[in-house]
Structures are given as C-alpha cells and as structure tokens.
Amino acid sequence: MMRKMAVLLLGLTVSAPLWAAEVAVIPYRIANSSDQFNETTGAQYAKLLGLALLLKKGIEPYSPRELQVDMSSFSIDPRRSISGESLDALGRGRLIDLILTGTLSRSGGVYTSESVLYSTAQRKVISRERLRADSLFALAERDIREIFVTYPDRAAPGAAIASVDAVLVLDTSYNVSREWDAIKSGITAFASGVSGDWDASLRLYVAPFSDAPAAPKAARAITSPLSLRQELASIRPRGGAGPAALGKALAYAIDAVPWRAEATKVLLVISNSPARDVSRAE
Questions:
Q1: Which of 54, 121, 149, 249 is most buried (most C-beta within 10 Å)?
Q2: CATH no., domain 163-281
C-alpha cells in the first residue's frame, strides 16, 4: 500500500499579481479517507492549487494560515460538506471574491478531483469540474486550467515570459523507493506546469536529502526537460532520513541557490520521512 507522501509548499514569492482578486482555496475533502490518504493530503492539494493559480494565472491566493483561522470562525470544516451559505458568509466576511474547494479521491494510483468555484459577488457556483490525473501535481495544473478557463493566463500573448526559480527539497531515502516512479512523474508535471511547458525562463534545482548522500557543493540549474530526466535518472533512493537531513537540505536551498531578484521563487518539499524540521524552516 502506498504510504502517505508529504508535499509542503514552504515558500513562494512573486511579482505583482496580474489579476487583483482575493481567491481562497479551501482544503479538499478526502473521499474514502485512510491513514495514507487523509485530510493532510487535502490541505497539501490546496497548497498545490494555490501555487498553480499564482504561476498559471497570476492570481495570488488568500493566505492558507489566515484561511485556517477564518474557517474556524465561520464554522467551516473541510472534512464535511460545505453549504453555499457558509461559503457566502466567508466570502463577504473576509472580502474574498472567489472560493475554490472540492473533493479528492484516489483509486488504483489515479487521483480524481471534483472541484467547484464559488463567486461571492454572484452568490453561486460559477464553475464545476471533475478531473483525473496520475499525480497531484498534474491534477492541480489541470484543475486550475479548467476551472479558471475564462480568466487570462499570467503571460499575455506577446508579453515577456516570466522567470521562475524553483528548488525541490527531495527525500531520496529508502522511504520513497516504492513511490519513486510516481514522484518522478509528479516532478516532471510540476516543472512543466510552473514553466508553461518550459516556455518560461525556469531554473530548477534539486536538493536531495537522506543520510546517504551529501548536498551538492555548488548549485546546478536544470533548464530543460532532458536535463531534468537525466538528473532524476541519476538519483537512487537509499539510506535513511535522520533528524538533521531535511534541515541541511533546506539550508542548502536557501543559502546556496543563486535566486534571481526578478524571478518567481518556489521552494517545495517532497518527503515520505518524518518532517521534524518543517516548523523551524517555516
């Protein structure tokens, strides 16, 4: 059985949004929840949707931390069905223009999302989609593309393509060996999504962590699908992931990567090991 995979968006900065609107992404309700596929996955998927929304449409999502407090204030529990009245109260009470939420399920290695987009101004659901993909990364990109189909992409025709600097802090311990093929597919989908199928000026860095290998001494940018495939093919999950492994990889990601001042900056952690250092990193 597939173990729970943690996908954590620890940091993201971007230039001014293209479309100035408040869009909240409520954690998705999990159908047929289990120890390996539960509400944590729904919250992680909401973060991926927020990332895809920002990079694809230039719409900065409402703060997940503030949203968590607001949901408690308005008695909204993403583990249960959410009424239109509750969405309307949240939107009007916090001046949120659009609210995206839905249900996430998994069967046979395929993820399915059932998403709805609620408009506070129109007081109704204005978009509804049911989509499938073999990774959460690919599913999030498809969800944003279809749900927000009437909203312009961040890069208008003829405009300069924005640059993106992204670091994947990647668990390469034995803990990910069973899911390694799925992880590689997800990373490929992620890179394609954040770069607009590699049209943007993407510099992707991989910071592996486990007890076996040491972090690379110099940051090396991945700038093409071929170089990404070669990088992932060179990695073999091995060793454990002790308490200090993640912290060292995060330090490398923050200090060793030559972040460009003008670029959108993304720091993503993919781990199947206990994330002991995550709170300190945040």
A1: 249
A2: 3.40.50.410
Superfamily for domain range 19-147: TolB, N-terminal domain (3.40.50.10070)
Predicted pLDDT of residue 276: 56
Which amino acid is residue 7, in one-letter code? V
Tens digit of each residue's pLDDT (9 = 90 or more) over 55-95: 778 788 898 889 999 999 999 999 888 999 999 999 999 99
Give the tens place of pLDDT for each residue, 152-207: 876 554 445 568 888 988 888 888 888 888 888 888 888 887 777 787 688 999 98
**CATH 3.40.50.410 domain extents, the chain:** 163-281
Q: 110-140 pLDDT, tens per residue?
A: 999 999 999 999 999 999 999 999 888 889 9
Residue (of 46, 61, 34) closest to 102 by Cα position? 46
